[in-house]
Input
Amino acid sequence: MNRLFRVLLGAALAVAVVFLALPVLAIFLRVPPGELVAQLGDERARDALLVSLKTSLVAHALILLVGTPAAYLLANRDFRGRAAVVSLLELPLVLPPAVAGLGLLAAFGRSGLLGEQLRFLGLSIPFTQLAVVLAVCFVASPFYLRAALSAFEAVDPSLLGAARTLGAGPFRVFGRVALPLALPGLGAGSTLAFARGLGEFGATIMFAGSLPGRTQTAPLAIYDALDEDFDVALALGALLVVVSLALLLAVKLVPTWTRSSSPSTTLSAPFGSR
Amino acid sequence: MLAVLLALAGCRGDGGDQELVVFAASSLTGVADRVDPGAEVVFGGSNDLAAQIRDGAEADVVLSASPKPLEELRSAQLVSGLFIFASNRLVVVVPAANPGGVTAAGELTRPGLKLVLGAEGVPIGDYARESLQLAGLRGALANVVSLEEDVKGVLGKVALGEADAGIVYETDARAAGDDVRSFPVPDRYQPEIYYYAAFVLPRSEAAVRYLDRLFGVEGDAVLRAAGFVTVPP
Output
């Protein structure tokens, strides 16, 4: 009986591993590595990678800049409706990306909720790189907010209290005590958010459209190349697999680099969904 | 569990035990199914449908938006007969509110106009480029803000009011109703957009009856109602 149970568990694991690894492996087996590298020299692939890199970096800077203080506040203040605010911030995690795209259009589109105001400011967001950045921010920032929230929550409040008692101002308490202690968790969340942003597809294609060299990110280029340049699509796909794997490994390794024992780095979030 | 998965794999809409199965290009939605209400109609991209027939999907008739996929099937002796039964036209669509102030198809080159087209390799994208080329409006390509993977993408961006203009099939513009306004593209700038019907081999009696209806008064009426131009066989 005992043995049967172990066999069943083993079989389940084997099925899971094969099912999840096979499609990834198949990408690499379909085209020889030399060919993959050569295809990355393709102008479309290069353009798409540049657009992806640029928009992801800008979006990520915004996510860190706004997300870190926001999460710090949520971790240290209890107020009415806090749970609702946290749920709201997590909503994009489970929202279908097509819905995210529609929502962004309905809010920031030309005929959207803020369309008039944006026009007054001389801004037209859809079809621009700003639209790509906003789409990435929308779908990726919850990954960072969640991780940052639990990282700040794990910081021992008595340490912050002690710093205050010793005369440290709020900026100093944040910068010299809370931030360093939460850093591993922040790092992991940041990496996950970056990976999710890099793979963004659904919201981007709806809100920003797809124009090579301007709004066509790597995932959009893969979709575009499918019908004509299957090899370019595979090469870009393979590159994204490698980058994603590197980011995932970084998340796993960050906690072991630092002495901090906060293992709550959230790999539990449903990430990578289209 | 396995049984459930296998059952799901069988549910790909290839008709099962239906008497007559028609594979039709998505732009024929509302047409191919009305020609014969008794037929099981599977809609999809013409290339995808051809691929399914190559993989052994059971169909009696295939209706394609371009000749190429069917010519390939014919070379592989999977279909016979290639009959043109309708043609479509291109139109320029603008949002109902017409934010770009477009008054004719020729204005697509105006600087700053936000134009959405199909991507290269996508039929509607290739036809639109051909038409712009014929009209000497290649400058309009500089106004393109997005290249979409299908007609729906183009039409959606226009209907939502985000793009100033797009080029789609007349039938799709009609189906979009009041959300868009369309401007005709003059005859001399229209590319040849023909729809082809073929029998899947072995040819069935039901297939012959279906094509008879398609080329008969029933087919003529539904095709025209949807905005297609009918072609005598």
